[in-house]
Specification:
By secondary structure, the protein is mainly α. The protein is built from four helices and no strands. It has one domain. Helices cover 47% and strands 0% of the residues. It is globular and about 30 Å long. It binds heme C.
Length: 75
Amino acid sequence: MVPVTGGTTGKALYAIHCAECHGVDPSRGKNDIYEAVDPRETREAINENEGGMGILSFLTDAELQAIAAYVRNPN
Ligand code: HEC
């Protein structure tokens, strides 16, 4: 598996999979996106199909971690 290290990758993943519902700028906190700083929260939301997020169940833990790193520091 290719290691995912956040930064650009997390940003791209966020833009593709999250921005539609959580806004282009995660620092605005739309729909509680700040909780995504902990990838386990995102996994839970996916498992519980919160807000229709169940469609994202294909995302790997590494990808959720990369997104978490981006949400922590979007700039
Ligand atoms: C189809 C729309 C949609 C997409 C796509 C989506 N979300 Fe969400 N998400 C929501 C909504 C709506 C809520 C708020 C649910 C609520 O308050 O009950 C939410 C809530 C959350 C929460 C808070 C969970 C909690 O326990 O309150 C996190 C974390 C989260 N989303 C992360 C993400 C991440 C990261 C992505 C991209 C990988 C993403 N979401 C993609 C709609 C979406």
